[in-house]
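Run: sequence + guanine -> complex structure.
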Amino acid sequence: MPATIINGAAVAKTIRQEIAAEVAAIKERHGLIPGLATILVGEDPASQSYVAAKNKTAHALGIHSEQMTLPATTSEEDLLRLVEQCNRNPAIHGILVQLPLPRHIDEPKVLFAIDPAKDVDGFHPVNAGKMMLGQRCFLPCTPNGILELLQRTGVETSGAEVVVVGRSNIVGKPIANLMLQKRPGGNATVTICHTRTRDMAAHTRRADILIVAAGVARMIKADQIKQGAVVIDVGVNRVGQSATGKAVLAGDVDFDDVLDKASAITPVPGGVGPMTITMLMQNTLQAAKQAAGLM
Ligand code: GUN
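>> structure
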């Protein structure tokens, strides 16, 4: 039997409706409008399209959103100054600096400059540290979206063998950490594979839940997964262009190859991607409520 397709777009839509209703309610009751600043440095086409999608979604949900676009030659000092302005702006509750930044800018320094109370990406060391300790904080959007998808699809994580492919700060490390935690949606036995892993297939074949965030198009084939595995594909790789000039996307998993072996799988596009943006909106709403003392 082919795998169940985990429809991230549909789950995201449901959560967005919940967020939009709450945004409308706090506006009505408290005159509070959540505000998000998105900062884009340079002209990377993928980053441009991600930031545009984030702003579009924010507007659709009634969240005030300001996109700040800076040239690739922007100095670190100017970027830090802009972050500082956003930190001080009471109409802005969430700040997102799109990564990656140009090479001449010290990325950790910029992330550290964001007020942790406005760090809706969950990348500030304070939030990353709190997450690791299981304390309340802003969770990074893609890992949080994966947790939400697993939970809403009814996937049992307790005691499950979870294998994560990829060790990035944005996805691999945090999702491994979250699935390890002693709480619902966690309690898994977690393995992280990376470019130096000796026999990757030996690990991935043991996974009840396989999460792939490696950035290599279609790298996971059917012979690398276990029969009945739940496969979460975080990859977004541009593998070509359609006749109309739109980017053709492929995940890190060879979808067609594993479809008959997995029990459930997220498609690309329409799987994890829409959840990432939705969790950003949820964090922005949370930031606004916290700033206003509503939670
Ligand atoms: N680049 C790739 N993913 C992300 C993300 O979730 N947030 C930011 N700020 N940059 C990214």
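>> summary
The pocket of guanine is lined by residues 96-99, 121, 141-142, 170, 276 (CB under 6 Å). Residues 127 and 254 are 34 Å apart (CA to CA).
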